[in-house]
Specification:
mainly alpha
Length: 84
């Protein structure tokens, strides 16, 4: 039996997730926030492909990163004293 392991997954990097969620929450428009997220996902995609990660794992990791950033963004926006 073999397992595919993604060392140091960005989706588990709390600092990375919170940093980009904060940038999105503080963006002046939704368009700018979405643009930032798409740029970050593109960077992560290029990095994972360059490291030779299997395409299926790249897609799964990017979905997880996106979902985690979006969830953290909403926590920032809805929390008392948040970015809103």
């Amino acid at each position: 039996m073999t397992a595919l392991v993604l060392p140091f997954p960005r989706s588990r990097d709390r600092g990375f997730i919170l940093r980009h969620a904060g940038i999105m929450a503080g963006a002046s428009t939704t368009r700018k926030a979405e643009g930032h997220l798409q740029r970050q996902l593109t960077i992560q995609h290029e990095t994972l492909v360059r490291r030779g990660v299997a395409p299926v794992m790249v897609d799964a990791e990017l979905r997880t990163i996106e979902n985690n950033i979006r969830a953290a963004r909403w926590r920032f926006l809805l929390a008392p004293g948040g970015a809103a």
